[in-house]
Amino acid sequence: MSGTLCTATLRVLHYSLCARVTDERTQFYLDLNAVQRGDALPTAELPGLLPPGSRLRFHIVGAHESFRVPLGADARCRFHSDVASAWAEWSRQP
């Protein structure tokens, strides 16, 4: 992904992720290296990006600090500095 995340794009991305949740698909990789949080997007709305579901896991790559703090409160999130480290963690899972 790239660009600015604002309230409208947050909703679109949320619904896009919701549409991809299936019984088999529980791991999601979000590359936020080229994404900026828009000034008008309240920090409190960022957790609304992620679909509900305790079995879901979100591997977030390259997130700016403005994403890490609000999303980091969600135990389903794992942060990675780059794609290689995200892949390494995923490949170690049973």
In short:
The protein is α/β, with parallel strands linked by helices. The protein has helices at 7-20, 65-72, 83-91; strands spanning 2-5, 27-31, 34-37, 57-61, 77-80.
List keywords for this structure.
single chain; alpha/beta; globular; two-stranded parallel sheet; Transcription Regulator spoIIAA; three-stranded parallel β-sheet; 94 residues; 5 strands
User: CATH homologous superfamily name?
Assistant: STAS domain
Roughly what is the average pLDDT, rounded to an integer? 90
Q: Which residues form runs of ≥5 with pLDDT under 50?
A: none
Radius of gyration, whole Å: 13 Å
How far apart are the first and last residues' alpha carbons, in Å?
28 Å
CATH architecture: 2-Layer Sandwich
Structural class: alpha/beta
Instruction: Using the coordinates above, name the CATH class.
Output: Alpha Beta
Largest sheet: 3 strands, parallel
Query: How would you spell out the order of helices and strands?
Result: EHEEEHEH
